[in-house]
Write a structure and sequence with these properties.
4-stranded antiparallel beta sheet; two-stranded antiparallel ribbon
Length: 132
């Protein structure tokens, strides 16, 4: 983000980030400040996760992935930071540390895979053509 501001400032002589389109601002922050946290205890709450990680920077969101059937934690979640520097600091400090009695694994979150871009999946042979 800082590099992008420098480029805009050097080209236009202005320091305002308001010149950048909102989509560019969102995509430049995007996935790099979102962390995957694995190995969570079933008793870890989103508030507890946010509190533990807020020691290393401003937590924008802390989300624990829940099983839809049992309504229990799946043992992993995501923490989103306001900046990449804070996220890097959290990885360095929290990876391999104990949280609620369990050692957690912390790394950058990977983007969700797209499954065919919404294309339907063919099921079985095609219907026979009607005879005229």
């Amino acid at each position: 983000m800082a590099a992008l501001r420098k480029i805009v400032a050097s080209k236009t002589g202005l320091l305002s980030s308001s010149l950048l389109p909102p989509a560019l601002l969102i995509s430049s922050r995007g996935i790099t400040s979102k962390l995957f946290v694995g190995g969570l205890s079933f008793y870890t709450t989103e508030d507890g996760l946010s509190e533990a990680f807020s020691q290393h920077g401003q937590v924008v969101e802390a989300k624990i992935v829940m099983d839809k059937v049992s309504d229990r934690s799946k043992g992993f979640g995501f923490v989103t930071y306001a900046s990449e520097d804070e996220a890097e600091k959290a990885i360095a400090e929290m990876n391999g540390k104990a949280l609620n009695g369990r050692v957690v694994f912390v790394d950058y979150a990977k983007p969700r895979p797209s499954f065919g871009g919404g294309m339907p999946i063919a099921r079985g042979p095609p219907d026979p053509l009607p005879e005229n």
